[in-house]
Amino acid sequence: MPFTQFKEEVAKAFGIPVQFQRYWLWAKRQNHTYRPDRALTAQEEIQSVGELREVSNKWNSAELKLFLEVELCLDLRPLAPPGKPKEEILLFFKLYDPLKENIRYVGRLFVKGSGKPLEILAKLNELAGYSCDEEIELFEEITFEPNVMCEHINKNLTFRGCQLEDGDIICFQKSLRKQGNELYRFPEVPSFLEYVHNRQVVRFRSLEKSTEDEFSLELSKQNNYDEVVECLARHLPLDDPSKVRLTSHNCYSQQPKPQPISYRGVDRLTEMLSQHNQTSDILYYEVLDIPLPELQGLKTLKVAFYHAAKDEVTIHFITLPKQSTVGDVLNDLKTKVELSRPDAELRLLEAFHHKIYKIFPLNDRIVNINDKYWTLRAEEIPEEEKNLDPHSRLIPVYHFMKDTAQNQAQIQNFGEPFFLVIHEGERLAKVKARIQKKLQVSDEAFSKWKFAFLSLGHPEYLQDSDIVFNRFQKIDVYGSWEQYLGLEHSDTPTSATPGIFSFGASSSASSTNAVNASSRVSPSPFAFGASSASSQTSSTAGIFGSNWQAPKSPGFSSPFSSATPTAFAFGASSSFFTAPTTTAVAFGSAPITPSGPAFSFGSTLTNSSSQAIFGYSTTPFTAPPGKNNQMKSKEGSMAKDAMHASSPAISFGQPSVSPSPVGFMFGSTPSPFQFGGQQSQPAAQNPSPFAASGILGAGGSFSLSSNVPNKSGRKILKVNRNKNRRK
Known about the structure:
By secondary structure, the protein is of the alpha+beta class. The protein contains twelve helices and 35 strands. The chain folds into six domains: 3-79, Ubiquitin-like (UB roll) (Roll), CATH 3.10.20; 88-187, Phosphatidylinositol 3-kinase Catalytic Subunit, Chain A, domain 1 (Ubiquitin-like (UB roll), Roll); 197-295, Ubiquitin-like (UB roll), CATH 3.10.20.90; 300-384, Ubiquitin-like (UB roll) (Roll); 392-488, Phosphatidylinositol 3-kinase Catalytic Subunit, Chain A, domain 1 (Ubiquitin-like (UB roll), Roll); 492-602 and 690-722, no CATH class. The strands form ten sheets. Strands 7-6-10-8-9 form a five-stranded mixed sheet. Strands 12-11-17-13-14 form a five-stranded mixed sheet. The radius of gyration is 38 Å and the shape is elongated. The two termini are 32 Å apart.
């Protein structure tokens, strides 16, 4: 296409006659800005568009980019452009008003390169509508991206001396020398351009309503932490900005990030909104009861308290300074619970997978304790376990059963672990009697139980005449804590509703109600409770008890509970209702459910779908047994948590070492041991049941042990918690 024809097309499109059009080559400069470079010559305008594109390639452009210059008269009719001598420079001018905080284009001028800016001040005042003697300041806008570069122009130098050339932009404003800069947020052009460049509108959401935009605030990407929270506090309104805690947005999950932003933990707003190579415009906020710096000096632990006499379990959230000790935790807990006697002593245990891994020394600091995945259990110390003589020993006792679904039998622990004192010369028959009394198991059910000494996951079955004490005399390279007395029995109830927790017991329910045990500072997504199997009976079971039934099942649930029933079963065998929204989560159990479990620890799952274990696949996790003192941090193995608990004074369980490519094992032989048991079903749709949203059932079951007679009197307590210059 001839360029003359192109000009006619432009005339039709924009209403500018051909004789009034002047075209400039639009070129990219070395500083990555685009400016009109030079006007096309008359000879160039008779060429074709293609030939002109070849000319433009000198400026590294694959396309023909042009700037159309138009001269308008007062009535806005186009005029012929003024002549442009070679020595003249085309400059564009913008006017900035610091009071209105806006900048606008006011016109262009041709100036001589040898002339000075001082010579055009009167013309600029005319363009701005100022008096001809108004003192003004000039700035060159050099770049805007990726960084703002705007420099003051010396009005006494020549335009060439100021390195000005065709296409450059000059911003000007009234001088503020007499007024001072204090009256304006952005007193001069450079500061205003910086503001525009860094301006960021942030959508704020309450952390409690993380899917709803509550309000938006205009901030600067360069705002520091204090400026952001102060602006937010003014909007809320809130007297103390330090009580605001922010959480960044996860661009991938479209959810709040798991960890909030620590006090002054980031330097700039841009860091709060960035995630790898993505940027968000969402921030979540929450208003705390105490200042965030003070809160960060505290640690909250979730502790399950087992009452010695009343067969009740309550969940408490203990908040103390991070340098506090376990003893401080127990002393604080004593003020919140009812003890069996005023002088009762408490101990704090770490339990997981139906085993006790540690008794915390009283002088351990709580900053090293992780209760995110490991259960902290507090209980009264029985008198018989205090001050043991050399002829007595405190041993752990765990429920177990064998899973024969694999090529070889696997030991699966379930139920609630406990301690037992054994005495020198005491035979198994006598020990069994004490266990039966402790667990309140019927003679018929107890007659089916087997007793075994287990070490490294290998059971050695005992006879009534065997002396149990002698078995625990041997201390090998793996540590005495690897040994325990095992109670082998089945755990197969007839029916159950979606429960919250079931510890080695048969349980079912027809209706549930929830009792909240929540913390303002650190709400927990776990729930503890109870369920029932019959509306006709009201008997209940002990802490280490048996089958129990009740017309309703009060439970402890978290504020994160949803309308979708979710069941947790620890050492329980549960058959859940076939409602399509029911999700079973089993720890050490054998649930049969059409909806599939979210978790299964040490169980045989025959349902059609299952959830991944802690966000992993359902591949069995195995590892060979470790050596003494090789029990690595369970937090590192499961949660990669930096908060590692201090070394135990007394530990029980099996060693866990770095997992082999096959899997990971807690308390089993080198053969594969699966957290979720043998799962013969396809992977679930949701790979991580520990999602931030915390879908946990509000109703459920809570029982301890299995297949044993009922025990009445159980109670569930409700707990209230408090220039580049080059162009």
